[in-house]
Amino acid sequence: MKNKKIIKTFFISILVAIILIFIFSKNPIYSIRLFFIAPFTKFRYFANIIENMIPLIFTGVGMCFILSCGEFNLASEGCFHIGGFTAACISVLTTNICIHNTVVAVIVSGIIASIIIIIPAVIKMKSGGSELVSSIMLNFIILHLTNYLLMKYIRDPMTGYGSYELNLELKTLISNTRIHSGLIIASIVIIFAYILLYKTKFGLEIRIIGNNKKYAEISGVNISFVLLTSQWIGGFLAGMGGAIELLSPIYIRYSWTNLLGFGWDAIIIAILAKNNPLKVPIYAFMLAYIRTGSYIMERLSDVSSDIALIFQAIIIIVFISDIFMKKNKGVKSC
Amino acid sequence: MLAYILSFDFLYSVIKISVPLVMGSLAASVVQKGKLINIGIEGIMLISALLGVIFADIFHNVWLSFAITIIFGMSFSSIMGLFIIKFKANDVITGIAFNLLATGLAGVLLFAYSGDRGVSTSIPTYNIDSDFFIIMSIIATIVVYILLYKTNFGYNVDGISKNEEACRHSNIPVDKIKYILFMLSGLFSSIGGFYMSCSYMSKFSEGIIAGRGFIVLASSAMAGNNPVISFFTASLFGLAKHLADYFQLYNVSSNLISLVPYVIYLFLIVFYGYKVKRV
Amino acid sequence: MILECREIYKKFDNGVIANDNINFIVDSGEIHALLGENGAGKTTLMKIIAGELSCDSGFIVLNEKKIENKLDLFANIGMIHQHFELINEFDIAENILLGNMPVKKGFIVDKIRMYELIDRLLKTHDIHLNSHDKISDLSLADRCKVEIAKALYKGVQILIFDEPTASFNENEKKELFKQFKRLSNKGLSIIFITHKLEEVMQIADKITIIESGTNKATFMTASKNIDEISQLLFGKINFDVQREIIEEKKEIIKIDNLPVNSGEITTLIGLDKNGYGEIIARIFEKCSEKKLKISYIPENRLSDGLVKEMSVEENLVNLKNSSKFGKWIFNKRILKSYFNEQVILYDIKIKGSKQKIDELSGGNMQKVLIARELSYVSDIVLAVYPDRGLDKKTSLFIMDKLIEKANENTAVILITPNIDDAINISDKICVLLDHKINYIIENPSKNDIAKIKEKMIRK
Fold first, then answer.
1. What is the mean pLDDT of residues C69-82?
2. Which of B91, C192, C320, C394 has the fewest beta carbons under 10 Å from its own?
3. Chains that touch A (3 or more CB pairs under 8 A)
4. Chain B to chain C Cβ contacts (< 8 Å)
5. Residue C175 backbone phi and psi in degrees, to 5
6. How far apart, in whole angstroms, are the C-alpha atoms of residue A158 and residue A216?
7. Contact state of C90 with B162 under an 8 Å Cβ cutoff
8. Is residue A299 within 8 angstroms of chain B, CB to CB?
9. C270-317 pLDDT, tens per residue?
10. Domain-by-domain residue ranges, chain C?
């Protein structure tokens, strides 16, 4: 029953994408082939999908924790960004062997990011201010702050907006691609996250709070602790993802002068995955696949890659509305 | 430097840069008064900015383009409202999705229409003088204020936000009212977006909105969704933006100045806890 | 005859038949009481009459015209709910005139006229309130008056009240009944839902009793005495359960000087829905003071006791003793065997452990809740109307489980409106009237029923 909904959702989105391609492309059949099929035709393309998938897994799983406790804390975007920035700083600025280490960099980045994400959560707890808006504002603060620090401290004067070359790097797993060991870390994260969220008392508490706060209170759950910790975990994972992405073979230097969007994508992934970390890689793959297909189509044909965003949007819109579900008219009798 | 800051030119520049923020705050406030939130303002502004440029080129008439663009903006937000009101989708997620939709549409349309990517370099530019929009923003502020605080409609909206069940009970057309709020939100968002590409600047670029659609969520919250106060909170953000641009000439990092309004917002929210939607 | 309802049938999506071909007639100027147990279908019938719900079949005739459109009913009949439909942050005038405020210059609200209008309305109907008063400043009785004023402003012919005196004191009740008389003298009809017999005797002209969605009886108040009426209302008792004698009982907590002992079932009876919340809060307070473990079976199972989006299996996990499933991670085997155990023990009808809880029937949902709560070894079991809306078989089953708990030397506190249950399983029955203890009886038997019923309505 639930599977039908996902299939219907994708069916409609694919239909819309096809219609749009017919409208905008002079060679619609060719474009459609490029969009949907090409990513699987060349090994290089397929590798791109996997590369794009890795950061999405980190932020997606992180978002599962955040949405599970019922908070709309959208600071994952900023956390990812500051994770990357912190990793860049450690890579460029430190020479001490102990600190100048990939593992340390990733962990420290995660910690910094998790501190950031707590800010909107604490604000909401102390003053009731909406975590939604303060988290979005925070993303912008982080963007401007890191840009400022980039310019001031780690910029390579021979580049425009880039830092010095990074001398920490994650190993490539498969030669001739940029697929890196972050994939292994991501897989481990997924499993740990699933166990934590679905197989422990703590995870149960998180999900109960997100579902029925009243019952959680009655059952004696420590609401503040659980809310803060689950969002902390979400931020940590996003920051970790950012660090791993930056230190991957994809980037030679840090030049993220704009937010990359992995945090926003995370929301979509978490919603489709219904906050289940095990399902995150499926949708992360989907998103990466659509992105890759759209880039190929843009390069070799005449439709802008932004069509991937439209595709994503339709998926979410259809998914979250009740049109396909029986309207619940059950009014409680007296 | 001080001379410039105290000059009329400075004030005028700040007002000019604040116009989309004022319109956006109105867009945010009307919906928030009804205890909902429109996250899609950023997207509607973006697509309106693009459509403004495109329609002006198609019809060689920027005023006609203005009319069509705002009709599109209202329709777009009404569809958003449809999903939220009738299909009971979550307003935050729907807003994020429609934002994405608008951004995607903007990219695809721009490329399909002109072959440009990112900036509308090959589309000839049209322009409406900023003064028109400045006056419009003031009038809109006053109109929205009267609407929300002095009319039956405004009372109904207030009632809905405080006790929706009781309003439905009194046979108040709750759904219809919410649709109107979304339509108005789309109207103001699209005016703000149109202004950016056809008045403030003379082209479209994919970063033209630069997060304004989100900033207005903050400025409207700071103002307690009061249109008159949000005129000033929006202008505060506009002031900061202008200072950021200006100080770039003096080699002071624009990034630092850009930070200021956001940090101010965070400070205020810590002390006053602006509730944007139900906590 | 101003209102005639014939063969009203209403079935809800979850299969419950709320009204099963009910007939209901109201004359003009009449004060008509509607009695019946919780869940009998009274509120549903009234909502249909007031135009808030549609019935599946049947017809309604108002003023000798058959009604085709709900809105016609809405215009002529006003329903005042138990929890008032008022906007607390607004004042009286704003509440009454919302959506219809007088305007000047075409669209600007004319506040001066607004308050004039309402002051006049309040004066006409002898309501001593000021149109500027904010609802949140008003007492419940005064809010009721505002609701009446709101309906009168609409110009209704019939006023329906759902448990109007739920939280009123003696004086407020008297005032309300005076209002009823005043309105009925003006030709309005009053229908009120209640379960307080004494009030009905005081003020109603006619009584209709509804049971399980059907008509039980309709008669003029004057034609029967109070005992005959309560006999009609409460029916017969028909079951027996075995109990063990506990040797080492001890006092666990006190409720208003009433000692609650372990190994005993103490029943509180005579509270209405509003009173529950207060007593429950007090019990919880005492428990946390004395650091006692408590198992709680709330009345609203889905909103207060279960997690809608989760599976049956997850809802069976009691957070207070979940460590038995494993120190850090839930052991799948232990969880599974616990799950199977509970399903058998409580005879829960499900399709599988992963089934979502809200797909279960009400009775099965309640069994899941009870299984979870009773699997926790606690000092006190607090059960609030645990068999609400459930069939007799399930109800017996639940009571059995409570008895088992008492046999294990746990203190059981049962809050219920059901005298049958109370008589059959309680060691102590505590009858409350207006939220205060009115009468205590130990080791109750069937012979005490009359006394209990009396004490529920009289001091």
1. 87
2. C320
3. B, C
4. 51
5. -60, -45
6. 57
7. yes
8. no
9. 766 666 778 888 888 888 888 888 999 998 888 888 998 899 989 999
10. 3-234, 237-293+378-459, 305-377
Q: Are residues C307 and A218, on separate chains, in Cβ contact within 8 Å? A: no
Residue pair A80/A238 in contact (Cβ under 8 Å)? The answer is yes
pLDDT at A1 over 70: no
Chain C residue at shortest CA distance from A205: C319
A80: nearest Cα among A227, A236, A185:
A236
Give the separation between CA B122 and CA B114, rounded to whole angstroms. 7
The whole-number pLDDT of residue B39 equals 95
Look at residue A64 and tell me whether its pLDDT is greater than 70.
yes
Q: Please give the Cα distance from C144 to C183 (Å, whole number).
A: 14
**Burial class (CB within 10 angstroms; exposed 0-12, middle 13-18, buried 19+) of B99:** buried
For residue C39, the model assigns a pLDDT of 64
pLDDT digits (tens, 9 = 90+) for A191-223: 999 999 999 999 999 999 999 998 998 888 899
**Which residue intervals of C235-327 are DSSP H helices?**
273-289, 312-315
Give all strands of the β-sheet with C380-384 in edge-to-edge order. Answer: C294-297, C380-384, C411-415, C265-269, C428-433, C436-442
CATH code, C3-234: 3.40.50.300
Asked whether C254 and C260 are in contact (CB, 8 A), the reply is yes
Stretch A169-192: mean pLDDT: 86
> ipTM of the assembly?
0.88
Q: What is the phi-psi region of residue C399: left when phi exceeds 0, alpha when psi lies from -120 to 50, beta otherwise?
A: alpha
Q: Which residues of C touch A200 (CB under 8 A)?
A: 328-330
Assigned CATH class of C237-293+378-459? alpha beta
Q: Which of B52-66, C169-183, C256-270 has the highest mean pLDDT?
A: B52-66
Q: What is the structure's pLDDT at A333?
A: 24
Question: Has residue C170 got a pLDDT over 70?
Answer: yes
DSSP C220-242: EGGGS-HHHHHHHHH--------
C107–B151 C-beta distance less than 8 A? yes
Tokens coding C36: 């019946």
pLDDT tens-digit map of B146-162: 999 999 999 999 999 99
C3-234 and C237-293+378-459 share one CATH topology?
yes
User: Taking CA atoms, what residue in C is nearest to A327?
Assistant: C13
Axis crossing angle, helix A131-149 with helix B254-272, rounded to the nearest 10: 150
The answer to whether the CB atoms of A128 and B279 lie below 8 A apart is yes
- Considering only CB atoms, which chain A residues are within 8 Å of C296? 218
Taking the C-alpha atoms of residue C194 and residue C419, their distance in angstroms, rounded to an integer, is: 17
Q: Which CATH class is domain A41-299?
A: mainly alpha
All residues of chain C having their beta carbon less than 8 Å from the beta carbon of residue B159 are 87, 90, 94, 98
- Range among A321-325, C359-363, C390-394 rated most confident: C359-363
Check pLDDT > 80 for residue A166.
no
Domain boundaries, chain A: 41-299
As a whole number, the mean pLDDT across chain C is 85
Q: At what angle do helices B41-59 and B174-195 cross, to 10 degrees?
A: 60
**C-alpha to C-alpha distance for A271 and A265, rounded to whole angstroms:** 10
Q: Which chains touch B (3 or more CB pairs under 8 A)?
A: A, C
- Let me know: does B107 contact A306? Beta carbons within 8 Å: yes
Whole-number Å distance between alpha carbons of C90 and C132: 9
State yes or no: pLDDT of C161 exceeds 90.
yes
Query: Closest Cα of chain C to B161: distance in Å?
Result: 10
Token readout for C424 is 């059959």
- Cβ contact, residue pair B259, A267, below 8 Å: no
Chain B partners within 8 Å of C101 (Cβ): 152, 155
